[in-house]
Specification:
Shape: globular
Structural class: mainly alpha
Largest sheet: none
Number of helices: 9
Strand content: under 5%
Distance between the termini: 35 Å
Length: 203
């Protein structure tokens, strides 16, 4: 039953994210899809990165709750403790703390880079998203983790920059090697072809 709920949640989350991205279609024009010199107003969409990452975080929280991986059910008392007690050093499995968290940090960084934040701005964005997760989202189920906050955006930004550089040098059809999550989102419920290509180049 839990497996069915997780699959259903994944599909709903992807559909919501797709709908959010697709709502920006009117801002893009097929004639500009393959142009390399865009004006700042046309090329950089600062709001796309937070919309994307917050959608992923919503899915992550749902996954933790449905799978039973959350330390406790959502409680207001847990949320209050995040702001009245210091963060803790958690003992989650190695793959959670030192693989999945840096990968999520790299996802935030990459979205920032491709929204025109620059490398330092993307690092700050990744850090902000990590703090948002720890203090405003996951804090409903557990105390913020100091090791997660230290690792997520620092290691994640290094991975994210490597992904960004690799993606710029790849043909579009190979982007899924370094950006599988975003590729999945824009292809599972594909918009019009020219808009999908536009997102692949710009996001």
């Amino acid at each position: 039953m839990k497996s069915f709920q997780i699959i259903l949640l994944m599909l709903v989350s992807v559909q919501i994210t797709h709908a959010q991205l697709n709502s920006f279609e009117k801002e893009y024009f097929s004639s500009a899809v393959f142009q390399k010199n865009h004006s700042d107003n046309d090329y950089y969409k600062w709001h796309k990165a937070p919309v994307y990452i917050m959608s992923v975080m919503a899915f992550d929280l749902g996954f933790l709750l449905i799978s039973g991986m959350a330390d406790s059910p959502m409680r207001l008392s847990n949320f209050k403790e995040a702001f009245t007690k210091p963060p803790v050093f958690d003992d989650d499995p190695f793959w959670v703390n030192y693989i999945s968290h840096p990968l999520m940090g790299s996802e935030s960084y990459l979205r920032g880079r491709e929204s025109g934040y620059g490398w330092f701005g993307s690092f700050l964005f990744s850090t902000a998203m990590s703090l948002t997760w720890e203090y405003l989202i996951e804090s409903w189920t557990e105390r913020p983790s100091i090791n997660d906050m230290l690792v997520t955006s620092t290691v994640g930004s290094l991975i994210g920059e490597a992904r960004h550089q690799a993606k710029m040098r790849m043909k579009m059809k190979h982007h899924w090697f370094v950006d599988p999550l975003h590729t999945l989102v824009i292809n599972i419920f594909p918009p019009k072809r020219e808009v999908m290509l536009s997102f692949s180049l710009r996001f």
